């Protein structure tokens, strides 16, 4: 597949995860017949963690889309975090965690996640000159960071989960089809003819036979339901596109009507000019360009 796709093979995240899982598994198993050491156990937990992604591919695609969306708003988080961190560093300079040698942005980040430590931070009396300032900044921090910004990030992360779920399923199918096609074209024709499946029969009313299929249908949903949900969510977009197309056609029809009226005015003007010059004419009522005007006196 690497030779087939070229450099695009190295731009896919799932390929890197697959190679990392394979290498970590080999490191964990080597050397054989020996007890694993520290590095072997480290490679073992990496292989065990990454090996689960193939079985939860839909949710991994959903997770990656949520991460990409969150990365777009990291700049807002960093701006607020640095602003409050600098303010706490000035007003709470004698408090551990906000001193000059401490990494006080991490302290502010932990406070945003819920670890306020209010008693030890704001009631010790170590920052009496800026006590009122500290309380004002604390009130603004509690109002902006844990409440407003965290709810904003949660809303972005959640979004329309059904749409993301159906879209992730379609994306997984498209990725699987692309990989299957790239692997298939590398096989000889004789092998393809031997293993080619000419037909596939689907029984929609037949109940699911295995327990795993039933569990998968409950957790993920059947293929027909996911595809139908994906198509239903796209109906709104199709309606918007249809309305836009209708408005464009209506605008063009009005422009054509104006051009037709202008053409009639020009035809009337040409008729008046011909009558004034005592010229015989034969004027086409549909096109001025195809009109014929002949003079009475000749050429």
Automatic annotation (TrEMBL):
Q: Could you list this entry's UniProt keywords, alphabetically sorted.
A: ANK repeat, Glycoprotein, Ion channel, Ion transport, Membrane, Repeat, Transmembrane, Transmembrane helix, Transport
* Residues passing through the membrane, by range: 16-32, 44-62, 68-91, 131-153
The molecular function GO annotations come to: transmembrane transporter activity
| The keyword tRNA-binding is assigned to this record | no
Instruction: Extract one GO BP annotation from the record.
Output: monoatomic ion transmembrane transport
- Please provide, in alphabetical order, the Gene Ontology terms of the cellular component aspect for this entry: transmembrane transporter complex
User: What is this protein identified as?
Assistant: TRPA1
Species source reads: Mytilus edulis (Blue mussel)
């Amino acid at each position: 597949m690497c030779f087939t796709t070229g450099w695009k093979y190295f731009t896919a995240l799932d390929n890197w995860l697959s190679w990392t899982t394979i290498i970590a598994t080999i490191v964990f198993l080597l050397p054989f017949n020996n007890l694993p050491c520290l590095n072997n156990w480290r490679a073992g937990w990496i292989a065990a963690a990454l090996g689960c992604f193939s079985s939860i591919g839909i949710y991994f695609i959903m997770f990656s889309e949520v991460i990409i969306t969150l990365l777009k708003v990291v700049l807002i988080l960093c701006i607020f975090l640095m602003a409050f961190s600098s303010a706490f560093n000035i007003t709470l300079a004698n408090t551990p965690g906000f001193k000059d040698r401490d990494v006080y942005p991490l302290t502010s980040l932990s406070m945003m996640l819920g670890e306020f430590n209010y008693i030890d931070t704001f009631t010790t009396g170590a920052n009496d000159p800026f006590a009122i300032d500290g309380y004002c900044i604390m009130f603004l921090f509690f109002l902006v960071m844990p409440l407003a910004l965290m709810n904003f990030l949660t809303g972005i992360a959640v979004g329309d989960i059904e749409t993301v779920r159906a879209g992730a399923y379609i994306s997984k199918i498209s990725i699987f089809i692309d990989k299957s096609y790239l692997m298939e074209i590398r096989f000889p024709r004789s092998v393809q003819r031997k293993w080619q499946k000419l037909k596939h029969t689907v029984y929609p009313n037949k109940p699911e036979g295995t327990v795993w299929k039933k569990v998968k249908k409950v957790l993920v949903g059947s293929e027909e339901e996911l595809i139908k949900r994906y198509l239903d969510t796209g109906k709104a977009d199709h309606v918007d596109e249809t309305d836009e197309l209708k408005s464009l056609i209506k605008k063009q029809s009005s422009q054509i009507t104006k051009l037709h009226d202008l053409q009639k005015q020009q035809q009337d003007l040409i008729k008046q000019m011909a009558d004034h010059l005592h010229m015989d004419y034969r004027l086409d009522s549909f096109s001025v360009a195809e009109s014929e005007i002949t003079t009475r006196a000749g050429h």
